[in-house]
Write a structure and sequence with these properties.
three-stranded antiparallel beta sheet, 1 helix, 8% helix, 44% strand, rod-shaped, disordered N terminus
Length: 245
């Protein structure tokens, strides 16, 4: 609209000039070109700082295709993990925010594309499931998740399925969901018992009272039946494993 009125005004002045013989000139105002912000990295006292137009910056800064974070005093975070706004972030020695798989202090962690690390949760990465506690991946161990289920993690951290797992002198069997079996389980013609009061670990080489009935389990975990000599004494067990006398 402004441009239209200006055009009309020029046309009117031109007409007047032709009628009066008076010449005129027109001045067209042009905007000053925007000046790019001046950025500067500053190293002082063993820390890096970042300035824009001479002003020290705080919080998140995107520079050179990477994200950085600066504390309230302007110092850049680096070479560690930090809690920012309730989420854990990892920063490299250069200060750049890290994403994907991260190896730090002998443990593996994983951060999403926004830099936030998986804290205490399950996550499917690629074709495998993993569990993280306090941003650290469970690896080569038996563990209890936040829902109090027992699982086994391989050396790579991937959850194990349908297999026996041993740790700290005990045995577990991880089922089709990855969770350890509990209570009675039959493999072939042999019965085993996994004690829920012992993290679903297999009962072995001991007597065990279950539901008011006594049973004995060999060192292999197999339930005893028939006549069995235990510590020099013979005991009789039924076909169901119950101690007869």
């Amino acid at each position: 609209m402004v441009r239209s009125l200006r055009t009309k005004a020029v046309a009117v002045l031109a007409s007047l000039a032709l009628l009066t013989g008076v010449g005129f000139t027109t001045n067209v105002l042009t905007a000053e070109p925007a000046q790019a912000a001046s950025t500067e990295w500053v190293y002082s006292g063993g820390y890096w700082y970042y300035k824009i137009n001479g002003v020290y910056q705080t919080e998140w800064i995107y520079d050179g295709g990477k994200w950085y974070y600066f504390q309230s005093d302007g110092r850049m975070l680096s070479n560690n993990r930090y809690l920012i706004d309730g989420k854990v972030y990892y920063f490299s020695s250069s200060g750049a925010m890290q994403t994907g798989w991260i190896y730090a202090d002998g443990y593996w962690s994983y951060a999403y594309s926004d830099g936030s690390a998986i804290y205490t949760s399950w996550a499917k990465i690629g074709n495998s499931w993993y569990y993280f506690r306090d941003a650290v991946m469970m690896q080569d161990r038996v563990f209890v998740d936040h829902n109090n289920y027992v699982y086994g993690a391989s050396a790579s951290g991937a959850i194990l399925y349908n297999t026996w797992v041993t740790a700290q002198g005990k045995w577990w069997y991880m089922g089709s969901t990855g969770a350890a079996w509990g209570d009675w389980a039959r493999f072939g013609n042999t019965w085993y018992y996994f004690d829920r009061y012992d993290g679903n670990a297999m009962v072995a080489n001991t007597w065990k009272q279950i539901g008011g009935t006594w049973y004995f389990f060999y060192s292999s975990g197999a339930m005893a039946t028939g006549w069995v000599k235990i510590d020099g004494t013979w005991y009789q067990f039924s076909s169901s494993g119950a101690w007869i006398g």
